[in-house]
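Let's study a protein:

___
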Amino acid sequence: MNEGRSSTWLDEGQLVKGCEEFFLSNEYSSIERNVAFAGSHNFVSPLVGSNELQTIATVMRPRIDRFDMAFFGSLESILFDVVDNHERAAVMLVTDSLSYLPMTKIEDVSVALENLMSEGMYLLFLNGRSAHALFDDFKQLTAPIPV
């Protein structure tokens, strides 16, 4: 996904636009911006996609690196609030595909991510060139890609 890319990271606006394209291409019939989710920690999702089966609240984080452990704690609270208080709802972390290496190679980050995904969080990588990779299982994220 990152072949031929510059090292310029996508910003949050680009992530929102790419995620909206992802929702549209995957037949999410309702897309809303800045949706509030109530729980023990109120949370506003920049983009929410819904279809007849589920609603996905997004959390945008352009760049993930070794200094994001506090973010993962907040993300865990958001995940539990959304899943526990909203029927058929899930949370999806949306990030730049350049975050792939830190997310899989830095042990603290990968353990936090694996725990979140085991609780039902999705992970969407975007590269700014209309390509995306969606994961719902950490093992899939780290498995070799068949040729």
